[in-house]
Amino acid sequence: MRSFIFAALGVAIAVLPSPAAALPSDSVLSARNPSPAVPVVPRAPGPSPAWRRHEARAPVPSNYKRSKREQLPIAPVQDISQQLCPLSMSVCPLSASKPGSLSEWIEQGFECVDLTEDLTSCGGCGSLDTQYDCTAIPGALGVSCQASNCRVHSCKSGFTLAPDGKTCVSSQ
After folding, report:
1. Adjacent-strand bridge partners of 90
2. Where is the segment annotated Disordered (predicted)?
């Protein structure tokens, strides 16, 4: 019935040969892919890598005397910020004292901050002066730093928001 349907449609059905007849014999395969005319000979081992080896020497200090350069203090913080921080960021010390030279900045530690948006260094370094630390505003609960100015959004209970929006005033 199957062949009748295909015959009615005009489709020719091919009868596949048996699997054993489909495989080529060894003689046919060797005729298709003849063996190479030149036999492959394995290479002889090359020279020993020992000729390339050398004895490692221990480092020997030179007699060159290095001169110690003094670190000159860098006056503006902006100059040191360009050396230590990415663009648009400023350097602030981690301690309460301001280092005077580049080596002191590195020894004492520093952080790079965006003075226009950082909550703890808003408009200046909060580690040097608490007026720049928005989180240190007495009675403030919700704060933000906008354009280098601290802004208070909400106050703790017992405090009310001041009209300027920068502080909280005790309501008692």
Report:
1. 113
2. 39-65
Question: Has residue 7 been placed in a domain?
Answer: no
Residue 21: half-sphere exposure toward Cβ, Cα within 13 Å: 4
Q: What is the pLDDT of residues 91-148, one digit of tens each?
A: 999 988 888 888 888 899 999 999 999 999 999 999 999 999 999 999 999 999 999 9
- Dist CA 107 CA 127 (whole Å): 16
Return the CA Rg of the chain. Answer: 42
Query: Percent helix, strand, coil in the chain (nearest 5)?
Result: 25, 15, 60
Looking at residue 10, the DSSP 8-state letter turns out to be T
**Alpha carbon distance 87, 106 (integer Å):** 19
Tokens of 36: 């190479």
**Shared-domain flag, residues 120 and 159:** yes
Full residue range of the structural domain in which residue 153 is found: 115-172
Global confidence as pTM: 0.52
Residue type, 84: L
In three-state form (DSSP H/G/I as H, E/B as E, the rest C), the secondary structure along 79-126 is: HHHHHHCCCCCEEEECCCCCCCCHHHHHHHCEEEECCCCCCCCCCCCC
